[in-house]
Amino acid sequence: MLKTSSPQGKLIAVGGNEDKGTYPNPRTRRKYYLNFFELGILKRVVLETGKANPRIEVITTASMIPAEVGPVYVASFAMLNCTEVGVMDIRTPEDARQPEYTERLLAADVVMFSGGNQQRLREMFAETEFHDVLLRRYQAEPGFVIAGTSAGAMAMSQHMIRGGSVPDALLKGAVKMGPGLGLCPATIIDSHFVKRGRFGRLIEAVALHPRLIGIGLGEDTGVLITDGHLVETIGSNLVIILDGHTIQHNNAAAAKKGTALSLENITMHVLAKGNVYDMTERKFYAGKSLPTGPAPVVAVPSVAMPPVALPPMPTPPETTAPSTATETAATETRSAATADSQ
What integer pLDDT is reported at residue 234 of this predicted model? Predict the structure, then answer.
């Protein structure tokens, strides 16, 4: 086993409905244009690679409308002058094992998981070379960025929220848990957090796993996770941090299904754009001025990455012009509203 101080790659988890540079009518065009280019999460995804025109692969596996979702991202990244954008519509575990997709993953600077149903991501990629390469590149390569929105963000956890009933929040069993992709094993991530009232289900998830950090992502808001433990808020809304390390009384393990949870002293932080939370030290910082110190040591497989020739980018599907893509993005949002809350 190879010892490394922390993952070298970067994770960007987005709460959903990220501004893709579209606008509902010409009168609001200037407002949306400024949000997209000055505050936009997708712009941050590109900037974190350190390249002007990074090679991007959008994975639409979680979505049930991939033919609509893929072109929206292709058009959105095109607004940022990114022309090397491909779409991987992996529908089955057999698709995920195709060498073509692994080669494209090895050549990518950015991998972007779309929204939809997070359970599909686990079902398609578990125990595949594709998943192994994804984990190894994240551990070893500083310029490699893995981004995910909505379901794509939630799947980054090791202990993943599969769904849950908001009306039954804070009753034992309201949240449904399962294994995720394990990119950020110290966290439990939930999306569409504020607008869909998901405080209760994340509280239960943290109560069940009090040594993990709960991250609730608002719409058009995300977190940039660097060194495996530094969480910076990006985007236009809020991020909620739930820390169960301080819990004293906790009946989550013993309570019967359907009975009320009882918790004492769970810690919550509210992060706006630019705030940082250190998951190792469990400390909040208003800005990026962080104390330096040794990063946590984790073990990762010492598997050599074979050199590969860069395959040509596949011809992307016909894109929807950004000014008319709003209807498509709205369809994706409606799909996510049902798919990731089962």
Answer: 94
